[in-house]
Specification:
The structure is a homodimer. By secondary structure, chain A is an alpha/beta fold. Chain A is built from 9 helices and 17 strands. The first copy, chain A, has 2 domains: 2-131 and 310-338, Alpha-Beta Complex (Quinone Oxidoreductase, Chain A, domain 1); 135-284, NAD(P)-binding Rossmann-like Domain (Rossmann fold, 3-Layer(aba) Sandwich). Helices cover 24% and strands 26% of the residues of chain A. The model of chain A has no long low-confidence stretch (mean pLDDT 94). Chain A binds chain B through residues 65-66, 231, 235, 250-253, 256-257, 261-266, 268-282, 285, and chain B through 65-66, 231, 235, 250-253, 256-257, 261-266, 268-282, 285. Chains A, B: Keywords: Oxidoreductase.
Chain lengths: 343, 343
């Protein structure tokens, strides 16, 4: 059994913001739909692929990171939801649904199974295993609960608030009884935050000439927790508006990843005067909490207490556009690519 | 009984680095050596005054800080060691030695007693109550033990390492079994760190054209703990050299206090990739630990396990020069002014 295996090729290391031309959709490659005997590997059909900002870091030729760079000339890699087609591994059987790192292509041969999860299918959309129940959702859960030390009644700012991580942070904060304001980059997203995701308020940072003044308007009492998904100017403005013993969870710095010389953060002296704890984290340090996370979030979702917004692109051909859109904020909600429908 | 009461007057709010001309030594004022009846106050003779970088913050007209600004036309205030001359407060008797906030003058009338400590005199120099046993020493103790979460064998960088705080941080780290390297601003200080204060190594940052390269040389394995007394470029270089799960205690930002537009910190993305906790603190949040601190540090000092270096200026006339010297790093060790000898 052979099939065509369309791929999204990483053309080479880049500087600055990713462009669609940094990736190339290659058709006409064929693949044997068999896992080689004795390999312990298994062959999957990819159903959904996840577009995540951290992937930008793998597009640089920098080997000292927590993740190795992508290989030029090879397909991108990322989180996906896939179905096993053929297997030389007794733990994974044809038909099994899995979530984990896979290739940006129609079919992938999976050799490393350490971080794969088998999906127990129920009435939750399969693609949610890339967002709400996947790495971004877990990032929100671990970052908010374990890094922010949140307490009922506290004032919480979330940036990139309608994104894959931010939307869950805000909802978890609301469920705890916090006052939550989200920052995002369009009026449509602001509307989503206010009316669908249940934030107390939201604003479009692009319409705020003075972020410090904006934060003073939305947080006259100051900010206890800033869940920082962007870095840069918003971080500097938040530092000016933190309350005493505030906490900043440093989750992503989308605004800085693309710049070789970002403007720099100028207001760190507030860390001292306000005794702020600012902490970077990676969800991978908290994987022991993953089972509890799944249980909690699935339960909340099934009770209708949380919702999750996805931006779904159709087909591998749309992958370069979907990925690049992350960095201009074009996506609304978690960006996913549907490679194939689950049958 | 009247006496002359020489004073060091704060002339007015300043921008930039303090200059000697921002202060004025005023002679010819006289004071009654009596505490007014019914005032609950007491009159002290000031013996030693402490020069501390935080005082720069009180020279700005900024009322939103954790400390109020100095009053133009009035004497500076700061930590001092004083002796009670006359008292209307039954808890403080003539002859008592106290340590706490007093005026930069020969005699002060003290009304607020909340943060005063009575000094039990023993064989420790009285002036040490401004440094080793005072606010700077306690800053080192609380910051290192409570903020840095230090463990035996860890790699520790201390900036402004021969200063009032840094010299104790380094010695506490050595006593715990850490590898400690200090940064300071002259070869004389480097010598002090290496040969008197027991640091494993030390360097003169002014002779290092590339701080990142310097840190890579002194910490080929990376830095677990950075006790940051300076901010600025050293902080940016340290961020590049932190180890995974490193900790940065943000204690002072001498290099930033004087600048209206510091260059900015550019390497905060390391907080994420290395999961660093960066925490500002003030010693005043940890005052419940003060009794234990005194007991611990006095014991260590009496056993000869720690030493403490002071830079002593003689006479109130030298106060402007002593204070200003802090900001050019002219002092070697804790800067103190002797106003009068204890008799």
């Amino acid at each position: 059994m052979e099939a065509e295996n369309k791929q999204v090729i990483f053309k080479g290391f880049i500087e600055g913001t990713p462009k669609e031309t940094d990736l190339q959709v290659m058709a006409g490659i064929s693949i044997k739909l068999k896992a080689p005997k004795g390999s312990g590997a298994f062959l999957v059909k990819n159903l959904y692929l996840s577009c995540d900002p951290y992937m930008r870091g793998r597009m640089r030729d920098f080997r000292d990171s927590y993740l190795p760079p992508f290989v030029p000339g090879k397909p991108l890699e990322g989180f996906g939801v896939s179905q096993v087609v053929d297997s030389d591994n007794p733990s994974f059987k044809p038909g099994d649904l899995i979530s984990g790192i896979t290739g940006w292509e129609e079919y992938s041969l999976i050799r490393r199974t350490e971080q794969l999860r088998k999906i127990k299918q129920d009435d939750i959309p399969l693609s949610f295993h890339l967002g709400l129940l996947g790495m971004p959702g877990f990032t929100a859960y671990a970052g908010f609960n374990e890094v922010c030390s949140p307490k009922k009644g506290e004032y919480v700012l979330v940036s990139a608030a309608s994104g894959a991580v931010g939307q869950l942070v805000g909802q978890l904060a609301k469920l705890l009884g916090c006052h939550v304001v989200g920052s995002s980059g369009s009026s449509q997203k602001v509307d989503l935050l206010r009316n669908k995701l249940g934030f107390d308020d939201a604003f479009n940072y692009k319409e705020e000439p003075d972020l410090d003044a904006a934060l003073k308007r939305y947080f006259p009492q100051g900010i206890d927790i800033y869940f920082d998904n962007v870095g840069g100017e918003m971080l500097d403005a938040a530092l000016l508006n933190m309350r005493i013993h505030g906490r900043i969870a440093v989750c992503g710095m989308v605004s800085e990843k693309n710049l070789s010389d970002p403007g720099g953060i100028h207001n760190l002296y507030n860390l001292i005067t306000k005794r702020i704890r600012m902490q970077g984290f990676l969800q991978s340090d908290y994987l022991h909490l993953y089972p509890r996370f799944l249980e909690d979030v699935i339960s909340l979702y099934k009770q209708g207490k949380i919702v999750y917004v996805e931006d779904m692109n159709e087909g591998l051909e749309s992958a370069p556009s979907a990925f690049v859109g992350l960095f201009s904020g074009r996506n609304i909600g978690k960006q996913v690519i549907r490679v194939a429908r689950y049958e």
